[in-house]
Design a protein that fits this description.
Layout lengths: L2 H14 L5 H17 L11 H12 L4 H11 L9 H13 L2 H12 L6 E2 L1 H11 L9 H16 L7 E2 H10 L14 H12 L5
Antiparallel strand pairs: 1-2
Helix pairs in contact: 1-2, 3-4, 4-6, 6-9, 7-8
Length: about 210
């Protein structure tokens, strides 16, 4: 990216990704350029692929669940090209690191709404929980334990009793009890890893 091009991108992203200062956006763009250099050349320097994205979130935040990481990638990749652009990178991290509760609720709901129909169905809850829970071998079938958790979640969160969660259901449940934000699998970095990432990336302003 040329110096002039970088300045235009930074100025634009400082306005759109409102949770970061200009110098912080510069740091994230610099990191983006480093990640692009690692990526396969198929995107011609325009962005980086799923593999680089997953490795980065694993190294930065300890996120290891493949199913969740795939969903996080899809949520960042708004234009569905299989490539994370600089805009998608900075705006996605703005929510991940510093998003408001409202922004994080929309983000988590999108992660769990696997088919994008505006609801989290029983099957979607089951799939997410099955991937994210480490169920110990026992007499009971592991799938049965997951099904029980789905029923408990529905009882607690399905306010209109239609057997699935709308965003309205999800929002009400999370506002009543914030811990339910990641009810169907961890898709946000914890505070410690977020702070560590910020300290590492923002410790110096790129020249």
């Amino acid at each position: 990216m040329s110096r002039k091009g970088r300045k235009l991108v930074v100025d634009s992203l400082t306005r759109s990704a409102k949770h970061f200062t200009k110098s912080e956006v510069e740091c994230l763009v610099k990191l983006f350029d480093t990640l692009v250099a690692k990526a396969s050349s198929q995107f011609a320097g325009a962005g980086f692929d799923r593999t680089v994205f997953r490795d980065t979130l694993y190294n930065a935040f300890g996120m290891t669940d493949d199913a969740v990481l795939d969903r996080v990638f899809s949520t960042f990749d708004k234009d569905n090209t299989g490539c994370i652009t600089v805009e998608e990178w900075v705006e996605g991290l703005a929510v991940l690191l510093r998003g408001t509760l409202e922004e994080k609720m929309k983000y988590c709901f999108a992660i769990y709404d696997l088919n994008g129909d505006g609801y989290i169905s029983k099957e979607e809850m089951f799939q997410m929980l099955k991937h994210s829970l480490l169920i110990q071998p026992a007499d009971e079938e592991p799938d049965e334990g997951v099904k029980d958790l789905v029923e408990i979640a529905l009882k607690k969160m399905d306010y209109d009793h239609d057997g699935k969660l709308s965003f309205t259901d999800f929002e009400k449940a999370v506002r009543d009890e914030n811990l339910l934000l990641e009810a169907f699998g961890p898709c946000l970095p914890d505070i410690k890893s977020s702070m560590s990432f910020e300290q590492k990336i923002f410790r110096e302003t790129p020249k």
